[in-house]
């Protein structure tokens, strides 16, 4: 059995200063707190590349590419030279090298990988972004680096992979790890962590819909899953403190050709480096 993660029920906390600021904004006006929450929601944290990812960072061919649909550029990482390519998509506040253990095993099994720093992440410029920009980046990367045999996404990257397949990304198989599901649930959880009333999450949804001229629920993973015939392996940890395991189960229930692999004690990020998880990924990929 996998080792229990330290404090598996504890998710990443929002700094107290942001929570206090949100409450002050809420006291002043609903409009102000909605704009403040939108800014926080769309601003990822840029982390320094950890030592464990430096080898992939150093050995990858890095290229800055332009994404016309969103008028932004992203940094891509090509790791290995095999024509059998796998697309890797990190999650919120992640990096193109975050799935390095999976990438290393794929290289050892005859694949190469292409990953990227999403807008406002890693080495890509910008301060704010949203899922639709992840999706636009994936579809442009397919044009420039594809075709891909497999797509693997973690967290928001999992939601983005499913939505990209719905929107035309062609892969033989997909794997999503710790993926979010219903957009409104994500907004509800976010406003709860900010210490705000639930009604603010509705205002936040409306704010984004007006700004981006989209229906936020159209990006919910289960909705994309309903339209996908591609075989998809859904991996989720029962103790994930950031994305409830209910999300993975619900996504799988809506897939025509899905399979579900649940782990214990790995949380939201340790799952990416677990050998049993990686073994399951390779087994799934190799099944004809």
From TrEMBL:
Pfam families: Abhydrolase_6 (PF12697). Residues 86-179 form the AB hydrolase-1 domain. It comes from the Bacteria. InterPro entries: AB_hydrolase (IPR050471), AB_hydrolase_1 (IPR000073), AB_hydrolase_fold (IPR029058). This is Pimeloyl-ACP methyl ester carboxylesterase. It comes from Flavobacterium anhuiense. The lineage of its organism: Bacteria, Pseudomonadati, Bacteroidota, Flavobacteriia, Flavobacteriales.
């Amino acid at each position: 059995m996998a080792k229990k993660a330290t404090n598996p029920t504890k998710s990443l906390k929002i700094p107290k200063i942001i929570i206090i600021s949100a409450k002050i904004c809420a006291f002043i006006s609903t409009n102000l707190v909605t704009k403040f929450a939108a800014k926080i929601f769309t601003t990822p944290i840029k982390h320094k590349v950890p030592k464990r990812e430096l080898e992939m960072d150093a050995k990858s061919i890095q290229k800055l590419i332009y994404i016309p649909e969103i008028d932004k550029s992203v940094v891509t990482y090509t790791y290995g030279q095999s024509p059998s390519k796998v697309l890797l998509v990190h999650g919120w506040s992640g990096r193109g090298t975050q799935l390095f253990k999976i990438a290393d095993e794929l290289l050892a099994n005859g694949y190469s990988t292409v990953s990227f720093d999403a807008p406002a992440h890693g080495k890509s410029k910008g301060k704010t972004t949203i899922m639709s920009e992840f999706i636009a980046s994936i579809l442009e990367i397919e044009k420039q680096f594809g075709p891909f045999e497999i797509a693997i996404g973690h967290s928001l990257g999992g939601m983005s992979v499913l939505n990209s397949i719905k929107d035309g990304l062609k892969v033989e198989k997909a794997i999503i790890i710790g993926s979010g599901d219903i957009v409104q649930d994500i907004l509800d959880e976010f406003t709860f962590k900010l210490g705000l009333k639930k009604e603010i999450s509705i205002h936040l949804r409306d704010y984004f819909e007006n700004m981006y001229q989209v229906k936020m629920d159209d990006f919910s993973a289960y909705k994309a899953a309903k339209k996908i015939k591609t075989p998809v392996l859904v991996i989720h940890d029962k103790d994930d403190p950031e994305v409830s395991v209910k999300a993975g189960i619900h996504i799988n229930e809506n897939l025509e050709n899905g399979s579900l692999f649940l782990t214990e004690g790995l949380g939201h990020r340790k799952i990416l480096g677990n050998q049993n998880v990686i073994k399951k990924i390779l087994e799934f990929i190799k099944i004809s």
